[in-house]
Structure to design on (427 residues):
C-alpha cells in the first residue's frame, strides 16, 4: 500500500460534471458484489414490487435459524416462539436509495428515508409528519447534527440547507456562490458543515471540485480547498473527529484534512474493496483492505494495528457501535473487535452455519446487534446477540427487491428499509 505526504488527493480522470443516475450507481454497487450481469438479465435493478405491499411482511420472511438464539431465548423483539417479530407498521415510501448507510435516519421522533418527496414518518405510528416536495439530490446523504438535518440543494443552485428534523422547517442555509455547482454535505461537527462541490468552467463544464467548511451558525465559508483534477465529487464517505476530517472516494484515496484550515494532513491509497467504507474511533481510522483490516492514527497516518482474515477471504464494511468494532468477512464470519487495540473480543460463524448473508451495516438496541445485509434475495435484517454473535432471528419482507437493506434505531424501534418499503420492528 502506497503512502504519501503530498498535498494531492490523487486521481487521473475527468469528473463527469453531471448528477449520478440511479442506474449508474446501482451498476457500480452490483458490480462490486459480482451481481451486475445477473441483475441486468433479470431486469431487477431498482425495481419496486408493488404487488408485495403488505402490512404483515414478517409472515412471508421471518425465520429463526437453527431453532433460535443459542445464546439465550428470545431477545431483540423476538415473537413468542423466538422468531422474527411482526412489524409494528409498514409503509410504502418515496425512497430512492443506493445502499449508503446515511440514507435512512431517525431524529426528532421521525424516521426519514432518502427520496423525492422527502417524507418524515412518525416513528411510533408511521404516519407522515412532514414532507419536502423537492426531495434530496440522488445519492446525497441525509446528514444529521445534534438538532439539524443538512441536505444538498435540490435546485443545483449552489445552496446547502438545514432543517429541524421534527418539523421539517428550514433553519439554516448557505451558498458557496455561482461558481460552484451541486455542493453536497459530507460531514458535520459542533461548528462546521463540510461539503464537496464542482467548480464550474466558463462553458458550464467541470473538471475539478472543491472541499469546503461552512459555519453551522452563520453559513459563512470558513475555508475551501481545490482538489486535484481527476478527483470525483461522488462516492465520498466522510467523518469528523476533533481537528481531523477523514474521507474516502472512488479513486481509492484515504485523505485526512485539518478541520480548522482545510490543509491536507496526509493521504494513503487504499484497495478498491467496500467502495471506501471505513470506521473512526477516538484517534483512529479503521479501513478494510481486502484480507487485512488496518487502523491508522488520524494525526500522522501511521499504522496502529492490523487484523487478517483467512486466505481468499475479504473483510466487509466495518462499524463502531458503543465502543465495539463489528465487521464481517466474505466467509460469513462476524467479529467483535476492540477498536483501540485490534484485539478480537469474539468471533461467530453463526451466519455461515445458517446460510445467511453477512451484514454491511450495524445498529444496537439493548443487548441485540441488528445487521442489514446487501442486495436481496435471502438478505434482510439479522438480530444477533451482541455478546456472542449468536443469531436470534432474521427478518425479510419477501419482496425479492434487489436494493440493499438499511437499518436505523431510536432505541425503541428498529427501522428497516428495503426498496420503497419501510418497516418498524419492536426491540
Amino acid at each position: 500500500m502506497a503512502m504519501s505526504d503530498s498535498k494531492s488527493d490523487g486521481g487521473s480522470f475527468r469528473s463527469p460534471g453531471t448528477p449520478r443516475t440511479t442506474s449508474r450507481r446501482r451498476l457500480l454497487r452490483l458490480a462490486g458484489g459480482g451481481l451486475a450481469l445477473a441483475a441486468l438479465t433479470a431486469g431487477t435493478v431498482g425495481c419496486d414490487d408493488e404487488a408485495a405491499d403488505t402490512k404483515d411482511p414478517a409472515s412471508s420472511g421471518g425465520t429463526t435459524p437453527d431453532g433460535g438464539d443459542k445464546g439465550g431465548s428470545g431477545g431483540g423483539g423476538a415473537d413468542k416462539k423466538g422468531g422474527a417479530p411482526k412489524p409494528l407498521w409498514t409503509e410504502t415510501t418515496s425512497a430512492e436509495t443506493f445502499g449508503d448507510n446515511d440514507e435512512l435516519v431517525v431524529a426528532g421522533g421521525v424516521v426519514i428515508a432518502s427520496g423525492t418527496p422527502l417524507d418524515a414518518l412518525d416513528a411510533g405510528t408511521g404516519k407522515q409528519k412532514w414532507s419536502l416536495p423537492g426531495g434530496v439530490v440522488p445519492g446525497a446523504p441525509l446528514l444529521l447534527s445534534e438538532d439539524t438535518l443538512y441536505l444538498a440543494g435540490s435546485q443545483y443552485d449552489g445552496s446547502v440547507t438545514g432543517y429541524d428534523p421534527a418539523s421539517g422547517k428550514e433553519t439554516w442555509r448557505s451558498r458557496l456562490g455561482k461558481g460552484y455547482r451541486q455542493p453536497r454535505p459530507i460531514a458535520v461537527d459542533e461548528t462546521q458543515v463540510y461539503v464537496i462541490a464542482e467548480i464550474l468552467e466558463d462553458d458550464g463544464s467541470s473538471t475539478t471540485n472543491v472541499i469546503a467548511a461552512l459555519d453551522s451558525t452563520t453559513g459563512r465559508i470558513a475555508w475551501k480547498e481545490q482538489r486535484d483534477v481527476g478527483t470525483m465529487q461522488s462516492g465520498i464517505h466522510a467523518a469528523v473527529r476533533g481537528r481531523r476530517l477523514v474521507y474516502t472516494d472512488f479513486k481509492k484515496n484515504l485523505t485526512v484534512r485539518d478541520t480548522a484550515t482545510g490543509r491536507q494532513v496526509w493521504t494513503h491509497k487504499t484497495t478498491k474493496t467496500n467502495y471506501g467504507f471505513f470506521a473512526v474511533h477516538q484517534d483512529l481510522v479503521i479501513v478494510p483492505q481486502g484480507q487485512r483490516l488496518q487502523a491508522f492514527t488520524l494525526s500522522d497516518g501511521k499504522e496502529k494495528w492490523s487484523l487478517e482474515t483467512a486466505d481468499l477471504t475479504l473483510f466487509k464494511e466495518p462499524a463502531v457501535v458503543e465502543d465495539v468494532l463489528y465487521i464481517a468477512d466474505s466467509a460469513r464470519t462476524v467479529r467483535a473487535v476492540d477498536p483501540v487495540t485490534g484485539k478480537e473480543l469474539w468471533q461467530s460463524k453463526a451466519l455461515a452455519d445458517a446460510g445467511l448473508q453477512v451484514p454491511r451495516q450495524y445498529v444496537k438496541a439493548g443487548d441485540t446487534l441488528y445487521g442489514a445485509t446487501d442486495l436481496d434475495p435471502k438478505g434482510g435484517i439479522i438480530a444477533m446477540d451482541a455478546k456472542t454473535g449468536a443469531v436470534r432471528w432474521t427478518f425479510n419482507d419477501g419482496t425479492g427487491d434487489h436494493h440493499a437493506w438499511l437499518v436505523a434505531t431510536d432505541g425503541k424501534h428498529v427501522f428497516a428499509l428495503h426498496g420503497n418499503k419501510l418497516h418498524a420492528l419492536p426491540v
In short: The chain is about 5% helix and 40% strand.
